[in-house]
């Protein structure tokens, strides 16, 4: 069955329109299902500004449906995936609002640190949302007294299953799973994305502990020593200041 949005029998007078070329300002005619068009005046190819590529961020048949996807879209495709990963995370944890809240907090810190460190936000955010996704499975196998390694071992296959379901690219899946697989026992040299997620999780955990019971300044100092990125240090200091704690 053809997607109704791409089937011409559903089109109307607004389905064919003109857009200004961003390079020479000449008008270029678009059909609503054109991913991109080349300007006849200057030869510049640009993305259809009115086309919604949302479904193509996760649909495995996107290229067959839309033709050759523009490079501009392919560069953003992984970033669009993160929102669907967040939804899947919430579905998986169901009513475990503590886990949902923690994953969301990690993702918020990771996004801020990732922008400072110029990391790959698609990898960073997907890993942040899925970092402890195997927790329910680990509890079923081992009970409540879990080690970090037991959670990691269960999280990797669940994360891979979710990302494969969303048709994530193989390299992204591999990178995310690598971050999750040894999050609790990092090597001296790790990827930038690993370090960012590590710092975001450490800061989120300390913030949650402090909310439950105010922590001494020493705990914040230890956190600062364990942080692996400059962006993480900035976030840790900002959190400490907000909580009335001074760290060097």
Task: Compile the SSE list and pairings.
Blueprint: E1 16-20, E2 27-31, E3 36-38, E4 45-47, H1 62-66, H2 71-93, H3 97-117, H4 121-130, H5 135-142, H6 148-165, H7 170-181, H8 192-212, H9 217-226, H10 230-242
Antiparallel strand pairs: 1-2, 3-4
Helix pairs in contact: 2-3, 2-4, 3-4, 3-8, 3-10, 4-7, 4-8, 5-6, 6-7, 8-9, 8-10
What is this structure, in a nutshell?
The chain has 248 residues and is mainly alpha-helical. The chain contains ten helices and four strands, in the order E-E-E-E-H-H-H-H-H-H-H-H-H-H. The longest helix has 23 residues, at 71-93.
Task: Write a structural description.
This protein has 248 residues and is mainly α. The protein has two domains: 54 residues, no CATH class; 166 residues, Orthogonal Bundle (Hypothetical protein af1432), CATH 1.10.3210. It is 57% helix and 6% strand. It is built from ten helices and four strands; from the N terminus they run E-E-E-E-H-H-H-H-H-H-H-H-H-H. The strands form two sheets. Strands 1-2 form a two-stranded antiparallel ribbon. A two-stranded antiparallel ribbon has the order 3-4. Helix 3 runs antiparallel to helix 4 and helix 8 packs antiparallel against helix 9. The protein is elongated, with a radius of gyration of 22 Å. The N and C termini lie far apart (62 Å). The mean pLDDT is 85.
